[in-house]
Amino acid sequence: MLESREELILETLQELPKDTVLIGGYAVNAYVPPRFSIDCDLFVLKGMDKVKKILLKKGFEERAKGDVPYGEYYRFTRKSDKVSFDLLFNSVLDRETGISFEASLFEKHSRKRFTVGRANPIRIELRIADPELLFVMKFVSARRQDVRDIFMLSGIDLKWDLVKEIIDKKCTEKLVEKRIKSIKEKLTNTDYRDNLQGAFGKIPDKIFDSCMTKLKNFLDKLQN
């Protein structure tokens, strides 16, 4: 079922207009070994009606809208497949911290790239958020899967100065300290690597060690 859900999401992404920015798990898949996800987050810069029309045509139904948990959004689901799309606009809000990522960030820090699925060999070209912006969004929320994602993103050639610049603009010193402590605690858990590989598959020692070193170095720099 995961494979068929993923295929549906990828096929739908192929039909989206150019002013739709992919964020969330499928955006991370553009940069690191892919993981499964049965929902898809999109930031719609323009053309919301067109995006909705595409989803309705493919059998999705609008289920909710409001300000929880990401700010203003529309949720579309297809019951038969248990797949959902969240269409965000104006801003993306982290409900716990109240930090908001405005539309101008997604306009500035995104471009055309390819994303893929875990089980489906379909390569989809569309506008995808830059890895630095994804890193910061996931640093702010710092849930378990977010920490896995920033760990894997740390292994690529990130512009660390840009990551720090956005964090400095968005986060208080107190929140930064809190997130650094939480992330480091997760990294030192004895079962961390097993949990990571449960999501991304087997990770070679060289890649794991590189990700760990780069992430810890960045967190130390951020802390100082």
Keywords:
224 residues, alpha+beta, Beta Polymerase, domain 2, five-stranded mixed β-sheet, 21% strand
Q: What does this entry show, briefly?
A:
The chain has 224 residues and is α+β, with helices and mostly antiparallel strands. The chain is 48% helix and 21% strand. It contains ten helices and nine strands.
Overall form:
globular
Based on secondary structure, the structural category is alpha+beta
Low-confidence stretches: none
DSSP strand tally: 9
Output the CATH topology of the largest domain: Beta Polymerase, domain 2
Residue share in helix: 40-55%
Task: Please tell me the CATH architecture of the largest domain by its name.
Answer: 2-Layer Sandwich
Helix tally?
Answer: 10
Number of domains as seen in the coordinates = 2
User: Overall pLDDT, averaged?
Assistant: 93
Which strand-content bin applies to the residues? 15-25%
Enumerate the strands of the largest sheet in spatial order, edge to edge or round the barrel: 1-2-5-4-3
Q: Please give the radius of gyration in angstroms.
A: 17 Å
Cα(first) to Cα(last) distance is 46 Å
The biggest sheet, with number of strands, parallel, antiparallel or mixed sense and barrel status, is: 5 strands, mixed
CATH class of the largest domain: Alpha Beta
- Helix and strand element order: HEHEHEEEEEHEEHHHHHH
